[in-house]
Amino acid sequence: MGGRLKEARLAAGLSQRVLGINAGLEPSVASARINQYERSTHMPGVGTLANLGLVLDVPLPYFYAEDDALAMCILAFHRGSGAQRRQLVHLAKGINRPKS
Amino acid sequence: MGGRLKEARLAAGLSQRVLGINAGLEPSVASARINQYERSTHMPGVGTLANLGLVLDVPLPYFYAEDDALAMCILAFHRGSGAQRRQLVHLAKGINRPKS
């Protein structure tokens, strides 16, 4: 989870301090707390993680994706247009359909 | 999160007790604990949730997907064949590609 947080923060071009403050953490602990989350020495609650996701424009499941390709598909769904999401869903429905 | 757990358990045709025991919970508390998780009156740790995911054949991010369509895409990726995953990834790469 910590790796995904760092990955998303760097992609958004934010410092640990700015990310923490924008996600509602106290300015005095923001940087240290984000650093702990990224090194997985301290685990944020789901609520805090959801706030971080809002700032970074990534959905909550993204943080829990161990597989890089799955993380990328989750991001694509989250950031895709309506039409692009329908394409993903159409493909996924075909995959999930029980084999007759 | 509780809703996804119940959804996956029912789809797998397991009772709360059987699911809990198979995920390593004490038999004496398995049923009650899964019931609490499903009603979100008690939140499992990430480790417990990962074990539940192994029993139910769903990845950890699935439990945190609020959007049904995203949950379905996550399942499709997880359960899809290599070729099906490559299709999803190909589509996702196109969506994630920065607009020039």
Question: Can you give a write-up of this model?
Answer:
With 100 residues, chain A is mainly alpha-helical. Chain A has one domain (2-96): 434 Repressor (Amino-terminal Domain) (Orthogonal Bundle). Chain A is built from 7 helices and no strands. In chain A, α2 (16-22) crosses α3. The radius of gyration of chain A is 16 Å and the shape is elongated. Chain A starts with a helix and ends with a helix. Chains A and B meet through α5, α6 and α7 of A and α5, α6 and α7 of B.
Could you give a quick summary of the protein structure above?
2 copies of one chain form a homodimer. By secondary structure, chain A is mainly alpha-helical.
Kindly provide the radius of gyration of chain A, computed on alpha-carbon positions and rounded to a whole number of angstroms: 16 Å
β-strand percent of chain A reads under 5%
In round numbers, the mean pLDDT of chain A is 94
What is the count of β-strands of chain A?
A: 0
Euclidean distance between termini CA atoms of chain A: 37 Å
Low-confidence stretches of chain A: none
CATH class division of chain A: Mainly Alpha
Helix content of chain A: over 70%
Number of helices of chain A: 7
Biggest interface in this structure? A-B, 33 and 33 residues
The CATH architecture term of chain A is Orthogonal Bundle
Shape by Cα distribution of chain A = elongated
Given helix and strand content, the structural type of chain A is mainly alpha
**CATH fold name of chain A:** 434 Repressor (Amino-terminal Domain)
